[in-house]
Specification:
The chain is of the alpha/beta class. Helices cover about 35% and strands about 15% of the residues. It has a single domain, classed as 3-Layer(aba) Sandwich (Rossmann fold). It has 14 helices and 13 strands. Strands 2, 3, 4, 7, 8, 9, 10, 11 and 12 form a 9-stranded mixed β-sheet that branches. Strands 1-13 form a two-stranded antiparallel ribbon. A two-stranded antiparallel sheet has the order 5-6. Helix 2 packs across helix 8, helix 4 runs parallel beside helix 8 and helix 10 packs parallel to helix 11. It starts with a helix and ends with a helix. It comes from Aeromonas veronii.
């Protein structure tokens, strides 16, 4: 599997140093916006941080767990803990790691308007221009920011991810290049109304499920918000079935969910990434504020723990400048009141 290519990639720091790429973006802009912890884009509380050590750790890394599931013909669901930058950077690094070359052939993203697929393909194949203009990272921002749920992807970790995916893909031998898919149905913001926004947002999980079920059954990883991937009972706060519920109903046993569980920082094992079984862990440990707590094993398959400093509401500095600031503010009247208020606060 092109060992020399992998070695060169690792010597250059490829794939594993997402934090460095993010820092470059932040330093270039000379500003990172911090938002108070109470001002969350999600009105419901996030995943509770793990605070006890009573878990059964598996002798494998998250990359091992992903590869094992792919080899078994599973669709791997990587649950993202929104606004946990430490965890997200590690997670994005796994996706670029050479250990998955040849096993992971397709990456499906929750964040992405399908009309920008051609732009993304050009970026990932190393093209220098797009539609007659230079193709830079800044030109790629519409890929994730033209999503219906764009406030969830305003963090600086996302431009860093797409930068790393390009570097990783160009380092791969051509026969194991990664295909990255945008699945959100086409729409134009200029044609949106509040009612159409609600309808479109409610349909995102179904659109993702339909797209995934049409792909080859092997070699696929889907990166989506952790609660979208919950199976069987789903999420009690969702008004419609989750992606996990839809996939489990259509193809039982196919989806293997690796659910995030950020570890409280400062335990002395910050460098470790742990995969753990579900024995001895309850749904209430992850989601204590839920009204009911179905068995955890009906919702997910494994937990992935990473040392984490907690939830940080940081938006990408580029979004405070024009044209993005005005462009995003012009969408506020289409969003639910709480989300619109937070967007305006961020961009004030």
């Amino acid at each position: 599997m092109a060992t020399n290519t992998r070695d060169r990639w690792l010597r250059r720091g490829g794939g594993m140093d997402l934090a460095a790429i993010t820092d470059v973006i932040n330093k270039r802009e000379k500003l990172v916006v911090m938002v108070g912890k109470s001002e969350e884009i999600n009105l419901m509380p996030g995943i509770a941080q793990e605070s006890e050590n009573v878990v059964r750790v598996v002798a494998m890394t998250p990359i091992d767990a992903i590869r094992e599931a792919l080899q078994a013909g599973k669709l791997v669901g990587l649950g993202e803990p929104h606004w946990h930058p430490d965890f997200i950077r590690r997670q994005h690094a796994w996706l670029c790691d050479p250990a998955l070359w040849g096993f992971m052939t397709d990456l499906v993203l929750e964040c992405g308007n399908r009309r920008h697929q051609g732009l993304l393909d050009a970026w990932l194949t190393g093209q220098e221009s797009w539609q007659g203009e230079p193709l830079t990272l800044v030109r790629l921002y519409p890929v994730w920011l033209d999503s219906c749920a764009f406030p969830a992807w305003m963090a600086p970790e996302f431009p860093a991810l797409f930068s790393a995916l390009r570097q990783s893909n160009l380092a791969r031998p051509e026969h194991v290049r990664l295909r990255v898919h945008l699945c959100e149905p086409l729409f134009e913001w200029q044609e949106m109304s509040p009612e159409l926004w609600q309808q479109h947002n409610r349909g995102r999980d179904q659109a993702l499920a339909d797209y995934l079920l049409a792909l080859p059954a092997r070699g696929v990883v889907v990166l989506a918000g952790a609660r979208h991937l919950l199976k069987v009972a789903g999420d009690p706060h969702f008004a419609q079935p989750t992606l996990g519920q839809l996939l489990e109903a259509a193809r039982p046993g196919w989806l293997q969910v690796l659910h995030p569980w950020p570890m409280a920082d400062g335990k002395g094992d910050e460098e470790e990434e742990r995969v753990c079984e579900l024995a001895g862990i309850a749904t209430a440990d992850l989601y204590p504020h839920w009204p009911t707590h179905p068995p955890l094993e009906t919702l997910i398959d494994r937990l992935v723990r990473v040392a984490d400093r907690g939830r940080e509401m940081r938006i990408c500095p580029t979004l405070l400048a024009e044209p993005w600031r005005s462009r995003l503010l012009s969408r506020a009247h289409l969003l639910p009141a709480g989300m619109a208020s937070q967007l305006q606060h961020w961009l004030a």
